């Protein structure tokens, strides 16, 4: 028997056990009814903060870092599958499970770190959206940042129509990003053989310090702390039998399939970004690809594809950036609610929760814009700082996840298998070391 039947507080009570599933239908019908939560999780793996790393990797080193994207995506699939089992087997999200292990003072510290991580994520989303608005409509960054407050009310309006509608909107935005980059890669006409060879390990990744640094950036930025809290909660939106081992096993099976399918799409998008960088910029002006504005201008004036097509590709790039930022806003909102309710059992109105988080996120952006007179480079540097903090916060979610999913008292027959324990601990140690290294390098480069 697992903790599910004894746990008092449901995770995200307003969506918990609200989406019906076809438990007795065909395989495809069952899968279709479980598809959705993985879409919201996949958003974190194609966050605007990861775009530059992938495109710079392709521009500087061609296709060899595709292997690193493959490795990091497989790692993400394992860790997200652990959050699926935690949520369905125990009825707890990761915040509740973490609190289960800690005394009140320590739980409070973990809660603050989780909240700061979500604010850091929100900062990246605001910056990405504000830059996209500037690129598309010449809206000043300060005004663009303030406009992003409006998505608070947009999300609340959407949530009134049910959780399935949110999944559909997120899926549409992801599909938009996917189609845009498929089109851009098609126009760039990369060599297929070079792409396939990129998935084979290359010695250069280890021997070249610059390549190693970008590889570490791709791996270290893959797992987002808020995604682990989010996934462990939203998988409980489906109507499976909470007291049946068989029903839980089926829910875990199809929720994991959902996760792997959507993360595969995120994997494809990240590969497309790197391929685009390699096809258009490999060996040419790679030092000019330092930020979103640089990438936009490089696409706009790319001689290989011509002026008119460059204008189309740069505009589509900005649209994809805006779509990605809005997607991340939706998932960040939900993760914030999960963390607050899970750690301290505090329920406040969704609009107030969202407004507080967004205002706190916007304040450092406004200060940065005022102090540095709207300097674009400083804005993008602030985005880098937000990613650094996410790296610091990562072990505070990974270690409780490992401990909880390997606890028989919580998980029962769904506890980790030995091979999962081995691989997950290796991943936790490696990711923590890589993140520390990235943080040191980031401050050294300032």
From TrEMBL:
Membrane-crossing segments per the record: 31-48, 60-79, 108-133, 139-158, 170-190, 210-230, 263-284, 304-324, 355-375, 381-401, 422-440
InterPro entries given in the database record: NRAMP_fam
Membrane topology according to the record: Multi-pass membrane protein
Function: H(+)-stimulated, divalent metal cation uptake system.
UniProt similarity note: Belongs to the NRAMP family.
NCBIfam families in the record: nramp, Nramp_1, PRK00701.1
Protein name: Divalent metal cation transporter MntH
Species the sequence originates in: Staphylococcus casei
């Amino acid at each position: 028997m697992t903790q599910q039947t004894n746990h008092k507080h449901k995770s995200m009570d307003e969506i918990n056990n609200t989406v019906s599933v076809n438990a007795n239908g065909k395989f495809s019908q069952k899968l279709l009814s479980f598809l959705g939560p993985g879409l919201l999780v996949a958003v974190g793996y194609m966050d605007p903060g990861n775009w530059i790393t992938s495109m710079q990797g392709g521009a500087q080193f061609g296709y060899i870092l595709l292997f690193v994207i493959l490795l990091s995506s497989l790692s993400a699939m394992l860790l997200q599958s652990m959050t699926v089992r935690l949520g369905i087997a125990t009825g707890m999200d990761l915040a509740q499970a973490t609190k289960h292990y800690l005394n009140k003072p320590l739980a409070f510290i973990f809660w603050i770190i989780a909240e700061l991580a979500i604010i850091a994520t929100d900062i990246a989303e605001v910056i990405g959206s504000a830059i996209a608005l500037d690129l598309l409509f010449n809206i000043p960054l300060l005004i663009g940042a303030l406009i992003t407050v409006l998505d608070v009310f947009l999300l609340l309006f959407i949530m009134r129509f049910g959780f399935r509608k949110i999944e559909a909107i997120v899926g549409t935005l992801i599909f938009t990003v996917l189609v845009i980059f498929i089109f851009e890669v098609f126009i760039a006409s990369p060599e297929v053989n070079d792409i396939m060879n990129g998935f084979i390990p290359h010695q250069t990744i280890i021997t070249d310090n610059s390549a190693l640094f970008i590889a570490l950036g791709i791996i270290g930025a893959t797992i987002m702390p808020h995604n682990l809290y989010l996934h462990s909660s939203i998988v409980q939106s489906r109507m499976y039998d909470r007291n049946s081992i068989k029903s839980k096993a089926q829910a875990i099976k199809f929720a994991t399939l959902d996760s792997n399918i959507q993360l595969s799409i995120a994997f494809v998008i990240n590969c497309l970004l790197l391929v685009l960088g390699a096809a258009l910029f490999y060996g040419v002006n790679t030092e000019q690809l330092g930020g979103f504005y640089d990438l936009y201008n490089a696409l706009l004036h790319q001689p290989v594809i011509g002026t008119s097509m460059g204008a189309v590709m740069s505009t589509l790039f900005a649209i994809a950036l805006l779509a990605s930022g809005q997607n991340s806003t939706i998932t960040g909102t939900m993760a914030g609610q999960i963390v607050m309710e899970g750690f301290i059992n505090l329920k406040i109105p969704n609009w107030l929760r969202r407004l507080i988080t967004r205002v706190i996120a916007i304040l450092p952006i406004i200060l940065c814009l005022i102090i540095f007179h709207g300097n674009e480079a400083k804005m993008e540097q602030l985005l880098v700082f937000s990613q650094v903090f996410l790296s610091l916060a990562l072990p505070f979610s990974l270690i409780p996840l490992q401990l909880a999913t390997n606890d028989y008292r919580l998980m029962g027959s769904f506890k980790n298998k030995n091979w999962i324990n081995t691989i997950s601990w290796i991943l936790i140690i490696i990711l923590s070391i890589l993140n520390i290294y990235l943080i040191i390098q980031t401050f050294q480069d300032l």
